[in-house]
Write the structure tokens for this entry.
Amino acid sequence: MAVDGNWNITMSTPMGERSATLSLKSSGGTLTGTQAADGNSGEIFDGTTAATTSPGKSPSPIRCR
């Protein structure tokens, strides 16, 4: 399944449901992109498209208040 493109997601957090956008690009098993929410964004790093591992890491762009 292709993952490239922009994805609108909803996350359940202790502060309630939060919306974010993922912009993803895959190449040769590597996954890169950004996660953006509330006017902030973070780069996705250590990403992979392997089905048996975590898809990647990103610092949360959502600020705790």
